[in-house]
Amino acid sequence: MGRRDAAQPHTLSEEPSVSSAIAIVGAGPRGVGILERLAASAPDLGPDGLDVHLIDPYPPGPGRIWRHEQSPLLAMNSMAADVTMFTDDTVLCEGPIVPGPSFWEWAQAVRGGGDPDSLGPELAAELRAVTASTFPSRRLQSAYLAWVLREVVAALPPGMRAHLHRTRAVDIAEDGDLQLVRLENGDTLRVDAVVLASGHLDATPTDEERALAAGAADAGLTYLPPEQTTDSDLSVIAPGETVLVRGLGLAFIDLIVLLFEGRGGRFEPDGEDLRYVPSGAEPRLVAGSPRGMPYHSKPHYGLRAGRPPLPRFFGPAAVDPLIGSGRPVELRTQAWPLMAKEIAWGWYHELFVGHPDRVRLPWPEFAARFAAIDQDSPAMAGLIADAVPDPVDRIDFTALDQPLAGVRAQDFAALQPLVRDRIAEDLRQHVDPAHTPHLGAFVAMLSVYAEVTRLAGSGVLSARSRAADLGWWQSFFNAVASGPPGFRVRELLALSRAGYVAFLGAGMWVDVAVDDSGGVFRAGSASVPGAPPVTARVLVDARLPDPSVARTTDPLIAALFAGGAVSEEVLRDTDGTPLRNTGLVRVRPADGALIDAAGRVHPRRFAVGPHTTVKVAGAFTRPGMNAQSLRYNDAVARAVLRSLPGARAAAA
């Protein structure tokens, strides 16, 4: 597998510091990914001696999100074969390729020649049963990530050592070129460079959330603001309580797992569907969102035609001229036509090559004609209609982005079967191998995502486009590419049929109403415009907090922001008018170097992750896909090594 025996455990180094030192704040997958890339390039770029300090109060490797101490019912939304932390031959990066096992390869190695029982009886049983196409529990992913860290540490090159600090970093000062990292336990680390890899930042409520919480408190209502669902106190939700839920993404999926199966309910086979058997402890949820439907299910199949030839229409040949034009670029009008064509290219490559019996033209002829036509044109519509006879085989961007577009009902009861039918059909297409073009589009979206990140990082997108279009693109990408496993969708449908989950529809709105008899939350949607609102005494915002440096509860980021060492991205129009505060940490796109309040780039401080202005799709990734996350980890790690005193001449 290119590394040591996948079952062998290792410990972090305990030796004292030697020469240069780096602190990585955050020992979850992102921090471990940076460590792995530091180790890969240290022989070429690093000084003769190098200590790396990993700082995290949560378990090293899995970190907070993937820690073992969470419900065993919670699962990954990726298949076992689709998760890796290691580079492979498809990854185009400056540093060395150092292959390692994917989750699936690790699982096979442990049960083939390791000791599955060392994981405990529950995880050992799961590991023995897991296949390439199953969705493992987060606890089993936690075991893989912990092993990855041990393996990376065991393979560190001579002169490089790693040290773990199970505490928080609370501030950074400077002593000349040295960075003094103050820890919550009272220690101070003297290092040459710092990488902030702390992941999603918790934050205090927004003004709108504070107003909602204040209104709820005055009316005696219960409001759970945005946060990690696994950290929420769900005991405040009583059995039989009607609960309004705002958000239908992955946090919502976690919520239903914990409130139903987590409270003793279970699912039983019922023909081709599932039937929910209640425990008596469950509430009743009424849920909505802007789209009104959960994210599209993850595909449960592989590509028949192999990876599409990407990039084709939205790669460097298209993006570099936009970056070099010297003029503001609008994402929706200038880039999206090419982005959509790239995604459609992935879809139709899989359809024509993988399912040639369902099309009227051979792939070479279709590909040539497709390439010569604008995506949103009558000619393209005519080509697709002639070559693809079944409408279900044609990519439909409106249905992907707004699955309830045009759906209206006279009341909420009449809306339920309409929404369930849409969810069920989407699920069918994502689990039936007849519909693998969905996976072709998914793979193309990953390629597009990387190029959008590069375009956004170049600074050429207009402020208005960054303020509106990037948010739309991220939301669209999440809905299509970051959905739950199919079995979770089947469970959701069973809960809806049993009357425990109802859908509000698209365009959800919420307010608080108070009268002489008390107060209630009220909610409605654009899908049922004339119906009386649904009322409840509990509201859950099922999502992560919006990113915010100014409102973060992370002590290190808060301290750096207060001192001007970290700055928050504020988008301004050409006349200086503020358009939007993204709440993200400003970094130099090429390498994640921190930008302070005065606009200066710090030569020895870096940041990577979803709290920064460089959006990378996930801390771990699918093998064999030239993953953006691995390429960016490599770029950041090499920049960090080049910043060190004593870095080798190869740094030039």
Automatic annotation (TrEMBL):
Signal peptide interval: none
Pfam families attached to this UniProt entry: NAD_binding_9
Domain of life: Bacteria
SUPFAM superfamilies named in the record: FAD/NAD(P)-binding domain
Stretches assigned to the FAD-dependent urate hydroxylase HpyO/Asp monooxygenase CreE-like FAD/NAD(P)-binding domain: 23-200
Family matches, as PANTHER family: BLR0577 PROTEIN
Protein name: FAD-NAD(P)-binding protein
Organism: Pseudonocardia hierapolitana
